[in-house]
Amino acid sequence: MILNHKVFGSSNHKIIILHGLLGSLDNWVTVAKNLANNGFEIILVDQRNHGKSFHADQFDYQTMCEDLKKFLDEKKIKKASLIGHSMGGKTIMNFTLNYPNYVNKVIVVDILPKAYNNDYEKIFSSFSKMDLNNLKSRKQIDEYFSRFFSDHTFVSFLSKNINRDSNGKFKIKFNLKSIKSNILKITSAITTDRVFNEDILFIKGEYSNYIDDQGLFEAKKLFPKLSLVTIENSSHWIHYENQKKFLIEILNYLRT
User: Fold this and answer.
1) For the chain, which terminal residue's Cβ has fewer other Cβ atoms within 10 angstroms, N or C?
2) Mean per-residue pLDDT for 112-139?
3) How would you class 180 by CB atoms within 10 Å of its CB: exposed for 0-12, middle for 13-18, buried for 19 or more?
4) 87 and 196 housed in the same domain
5) Sign of the dihedral defined by the CA atoms of residues 240, 242, 247, 250, in that order
6) Quick one: 94 and 12 in the same domain?
């Protein structure tokens, strides 16, 4: 099955953007429009078990890497630039290491190839306990998640995973069962003896703790030509919190 996607602009320089865990292509529409206005063709993709893409029991980085290769082959795209945020960043790191001939420019947003703590139980619990049948409005959804989380940006992010089905009833967009059962595969490190010997840009949020010195040291074993840019006044949601600076940095890199 082909991944759900949306295209913005038309150009020989195509850019694939992959969202993070529990996200969707909808999180990147504004960025896509801005990049398209600068002469690029942007293809936003919902990864498996997310957005409007298919649901499946199998959920790991090698599988998502193969999903991306199948997508590019289906669309007859021989070479593209890749941007990936968080989980999407790990997907494109895997893809870049396995299929470097498909890759033009690579931008990894606020994630490293290292292992991360599995701290998603509270999130999964909030979705599991939600009484979807009694929800009447999006305001109610925001209010519900606010009982679990204080960060308004994060509440808004989670709320976007609830939408209406063809009968007008609210439902969870992502595959909660598969993601929950495979979460340790998603938080694990990338382990490979492959090395990508071309330029690759990593972007860090100033207040984010996803990128640290030890993790960068290990990342350089896989990506020796890694360069790092820090975006001020942002945390993990860089493309939302400081989009202006984020766009400046990625355009500078894409045009080199």
Assistant:
1) C
2) 94
3) middle
4) yes
5) negative
6) yes
Range with lowest mean pLDDT among 149-158, 182-191, 194-203, 239-248:
149-158
What pLDDT score was predicted for residue 246? Answer: 98
Note whether 93 and 84 are within 8 A (CB): yes
Per-residue pLDDT averaged across 108-125, rounded? 96
Task: Tabulate helix, strand, coil % of the chain (nearest 5).
Answer: 40, 20, 40
- 30 with 96, same domain: the answer is yes
In 46-88, beta strands by DSSP E: 80-85
pLDDT band at 1 (very low <50, low <70, confident <90, very high): confident
Say if residues 2 and 74 touch (Cβ distance below 8 Å): yes
Residue 185 forms part of a structural domain: no
CATH, residue 32: 3.40.50.1820
- Considering the domain architecture, whether residues 197 and 152 belong to the same structural domain is answered as no
Assign 113 to helix, strand or coil: coil
What would the pLDDT profile of 57-78 be if each residue is shown by its tens digit? 999 999 999 999 999 999 999 9
Give mean pLDDT, residues 130-158. 93
Structure tokens at 128: 């599991």
Sign of CA dihedral 224, 221, 107, 103: positive
Domain count, the chain: 2
In whole angstroms, give the CA distance from residue 251 to residue 190. Answer: 27
Print the domain residue range for 155.
121-180
Side-chain-facing half-sphere of 25: CA atoms under 13 Å: 21
Residue range 197-221: average pLDDT? 97
Task: Give pLDDT tens digits for 166-177.
Answer: 888 899 999 999
Residues 37 and 128 in one domain: no
